[in-house]
Predict the structure.
Amino acid sequence: EYDGTDTLESQRLTLHIDPQALDLPAPTYSRTARRVTVDHADIRTGYKIRVRWTIDDLALEGPEEDLHTGQPYHYEVPAEWVGLGQDKTVLVNYSVRRTGSSELTMFSRVLRLTFNEPAISDIRDSKGSIAPGGNTAETSVMVTGTASKGERVQLFDTGNPVPISAPALADATTGIWSVALSGLAGKLYVLKAKALYGSGVES
């Protein structure tokens, strides 16, 4: 019977942790392109990669795709993932494994992101999404983005202090907002979203 006066110890267990074959740095993230990029010397053909986007206890994973020697890997993050991360800290990393091998999967260091500023995630015309820096012959487009949940944003053409849209309300659950722009002139637009909350940060 133990009376509480003596210190008792369990049996000792020796644990050896072997280092990974590759030291994988954290990925980078472009907020404007909504893209995760992995670009370092250990990227090479014969390995597969998968991006992981973790919010609290929710782990979202991209598809497992092939790596190619000398080519950086890019993964376009779904707008819904960014929306779920609004007002939270998002942990971003990736896993790498050798194709056709019994080697253990290796994991990268973690990139920490915080999303509370507005962001434009998609601009589309009647034919679909317009790539960043792309063109359209149409005068009406739909602009979609994310912001703090339940807050409002407004679109501006950079350099023009007059907004080119009515305020848009970010969804209270996802943080996603959308604005329809019409009557656009035949000119270059550089769109930005401005928060109508907090300090008024811009995308």
Notes: The longest helix spans residues 79-84. The two ends are 66 Å apart (CA to CA). The CA atoms of residues 2 and 9 lie 13 Å apart.
